[in-house]
Amino acid sequence: MADEKKKLIIDEDWKQQAQREKEILAAKEKEEKAREKEAEEKFGPGGPLPAGTFAALVSMLTTQALFALGLIRVRGEEEREPDLEMARYNIDMLEMLAEKTRGNLTPEEEKMLKNTLGDLRMGFVNVANQLGKLGATQEG
Q1: 28 and 59 housed in the same domain
Q2: Domain assignment of residue 134, yes or no
Q3: Rounded Cα distance, 77 and 70, in Å
Q4: Number of domains in the chain
Q5: Residue 131: which of 70, 90, 67, 72 has the closest Cα?
Q6: Are residues 110 and 70 in the same domain?
Q7: Whole domain around residue 79: which residue ranges?
Q8: pTM of this prediction?
Q9: Which residues, at least 6 apart from 81, have a Cβ–Cβ distance to it below 8 Å?
Q10: What is the 3-state secondary structure (H, E, C) of the chain?
């Protein structure tokens, strides 16, 4: 037995398979980067905008109102004085939207708009009270 030499058999197939898989993965990554670059050139950073929906419109106006109230802010930006006039404008826009679309919304859209307006009105009153400006905003 000592005289018998052990044969070492190397299976090259797995190396070739691994190399093929690497090449396929690299090609997919290259293709994905090309698609991302194309989308960025066409639509700008972040890719295409989502489809316009009623919920997106309500969300956009809500975000503007919350920002004006100082309840949300840009990361890294200093805290600023709430802009009650701008907040009221955005809340009024949502109220007008509710009035103009009355009877044409799905139950989910109607509920979302009603709840959003209620929350924004309460937020407006709270911020105005904290600033001691509730009476001044009601006159204007």
Answers
A1: no
A2: yes
A3: 12
A4: 2
A5: 70
A6: yes
A7: 54-139
A8: 0.62
A9: 70
A10: CCCCCCCCCCCCHHHHHHHHHHHHHHHHHHHHHHHHHHHHHHHCCCCCCCCCCHHHHHHHHHHHHHHHHCCCCCCCCCCCCCCHHHHHHHHHHHHHHHHHHCCCCCHHHHHHHHHHHHHHHHHHHHHHHHHCCHHHHHHC
Asked if 21 and 66 sit in the same domain, the reply is: no
Pair 96, 133 in one domain: yes
Sign of CA dihedral 121, 128, 135, 93: negative
Rounded to whole angstroms, how far apart are CA atoms 124 and 127? 5
Same domain flag for 96 and 41? no
| Tokens, residue 51 | 């489809």
Round to whole Å and give the CA distance between 54 and 60: 10
- Give me the tens of pLDDT residue by residue for the chain, a chain 140 residues long: 555 667 766 667 777 877 888 888 888 888 888 887 877 777 777 767 778 999 999 999 999 999 999 999 888 888 889 999 999 999 999 999 999 999 999 999 999 999 999 999 999 999 999 998 765 545 44
Tokens for 112? 């979302």
Residue 113 has which token pair?
A: 């708009």
Q: ∠ CA(45), CA(50), CA(51), 5° rounding?
A: 145
Amino acid (1-letter code) at residue 131: L
